Amino acid sequence: MPDFDWPKDFHRIPDEDWTDAPLDPLGQRYDSMARHLWYRNLELTVEQLAEALKPGQLLIDYSGGTGILARQLLQRIAGIGTVMVDASPRFLRVALEHFRDEPRVAFRLLRYLEGERRLQGLDEVLGPAFLARKADALVSTNAVHLYPDLPGTFQAWARSVRPGGKVFVQSGDIRNPEGKPGEWLISQVVEKVREVAKEVAAEDPRYAPYRAVLEDRAKMAAYDALWRKVFLPIRPVSEYQEALTQAGFTVKDILTRTVDVGVLEWYEATSVYPDLLGWVGGSPKVDKRLPTAAEVQDRLDLLKQSFLKLFKGRDIYQSTWTYFVAER
Ligand SMILES: C[S@@+](CC[C@H](N)C(=O)[O-])C[C@H]1O[C@@H](n2cnc3c(N)ncnc32)[C@H](O)[C@@H]1O
C-alpha cells in the first residue's frame, strides 16, 4: 500500500499526554465488539466511502473511537489519509495502539473546555496546516446520537471540509419513519430493559436486597439522571437534516437499513455502562461509595436476565439504522 502525503507541518501523532498513557481495559473491551453482528452496520458506510474517495484524499473519521471503521477502510481503500478524531482519550489511545506505525492514520483529541463548558470543535484541533487544505470527506459512525450540540458540531465540520466534500453520518438511534414495524432503536432497547429489570427484581428473590431503593423517588431520580447524561433523548431524522443544512451542507440522501443485533452481544455492549442499573448496588456519583464486587455481579446478571426476558429467548432482534449523505 502506498503511503500518504500529509499537509506540510501537520503531525500525525500530537505531542500530548494521552499518547503515552497505559491502555485502558474499557477501551480494549469496546474494541473487541468489532466482531459483533450489529457492527455490520459499517458495511454500507465502507461501500459509500470506497466509492467517494480517491487516492491522495483526506478523510476525517469523527468519533472514530478505537478504530473499528478505520481498520476496514485501510484494507479496502488505497492511498487515502485518515484523521481519527475523538472526545475520549481512552478510546483514541486504543486506536493509536493499532495504528502508531501506520503512516496513513493521524490522531486528534477533542478536549472538553471546562471554562466554556463545551467540547472543542473539529477545526480547533486540526490546526492551520490542515485547514489550509481541508478534508475531502468526513464520516461519523455510531456516534452522532451522542452529540449534545448538533448545530455547533456540524458547523465546525463545515469549517473543516472543503466545498464539494462529502459527509457520511450513520446511527442506530435516530427516530426514522422509514423504520420497519418491530424494529428497535438503541435507546428504546436500553429504556425497555431498565423497566424489565425492575420486574425481574420484583420476582427473583436474589434481588430482594435491592428492592427498597426502588421506592426512594429522590434516589431513583438521581440514578435516572446519570443514565440520561449518556443516552440523550432520541431525536428525529428531521433534526439531523436541519442541523446539517443550517451548517452549510446539502443533504443528498437519507438511507434506512435493518441491522441484526445479537441479544447477548447488545447485553455485552450495554454492560460497559454501570449507571444503566445504578440502583443495583448504587453509584459513586450518588452514594459516594463504590458497589462491592458481589453487587456489580448482581447488576450484570440482572441486566442479562432482563435482556433475555425482553426478547423472550430470541438470539437476534432487528434495529433501524439511518445513513445521511451530505455535501459541503
Ligand atoms: C459507539 S462509539 C463508535 C465509535 C466508532 N465510530 C465506531 O463505529 O466503532 C461512539 C464514539 O463517539 C465518541 N463521542 C461521544 N460523544 C461525543 C461527542 N460529543 N463528540 C464527539 N465524539 C463523541 C465516543 O468517544 C466514542 O468513541
Automatic annotation (TrEMBL):
A Pfam family recorded for this sequence: Methyltransf_12
From what superkingdom does this record's organism come?
Answer: Bacteria
CDD domains given in the database record: AdoMet_MTases
Q: Which GO terms describe its molecular function?
A: methyltransferase activity
Query: Domain Methyltransferase type spans what residues?
Result: 63-166
User: Which GO BP terms, alphabetically?
Assistant: methylation
- Keyword Transferase assigned to the entry: answer is yes
Tell me the organism.
Hyalangium rubrum
Name this protein carries in UniProt: Methyltransferase
Gene3D superfamilies assigned: Vaccinia Virus protein VP39 (3.40.50.150)
Keyword entries, A-Z = Methyltransferase, Transferase
